[in-house]
Design a protein that fits this description.
With about 150 residues, this protein is mainly α. It is about 80% helix and about 0% strand. The two termini are about 35 Å apart.
Length: about 150
């Protein structure tokens, strides 16, 4: 992966993930003092627009690195950060599909289903991305589970 591609993926994740986290906080955690307010926070519509409009950048960035980074690593059996990388690869489609389905759903039931799927897959994506990039960003080893640490000591 080139430096440009890595920077693009990180920028896209920062924009989409950051705006998604802020939007979720505004929508589900903040409460408006106005009982007639349509939104919980005055910036909520702008944050939703930023999230929705920056999401195609993440889709493009993931497509850009798919063949030269993701697929090459999957086929070669490259083991460093493999679990988080595979989690990202598997979680990408449900996150994208649920995000787009959420935008076009008219039934309240289906809208609730897509919200739940999108929140879960996006949270897993964000956690996996941070863990996947941990060593690069912080220069140390990525956090490992107790089982993985015990396996490494053998």
């Amino acid at each position: 992966m080139t430096r440009f591609e890595a920077n693009l993926v990180q920028l896209a994740n920062l924009l989409v993930g950051g705006s998604g986290l802020v939007y979720a906080w505004m929508r589900y955690c903040s409460v408006s003092s106005d009982p007639f307010a349509v939104v919980n926070h005055p910036a909520q519509p702008a944050m939703m627009h930023l999230h929705v409009l920056s999401a195609p950048l993440l889709v493009f960035a993931c497509g850009l690195i798919w063949r030269a980074h993701v697929w090459v690593r999957v086929r070669s059996g490259f083991s460093e950060r493999r679990k988080t990388g595979l989690s990202l690869a598997v979680g990408l489609a449900p996150m994208i599909v649920s995000g787009y389905a959420l935008q076009v759903s008219v039934s309240e039931t289906w809208r609730d289903v897509w919200i739940a799927v999108h929140l879960c897959t996006s949270a897993l994506w964000t956690a996996a991305f941070v863990l996947h990039r941990w060593r690069v960003w912080f220069g140390g080893r990525a956090p490992v589970s107790n089982a993985a640490a015990a396996h490494e000591r053998r």
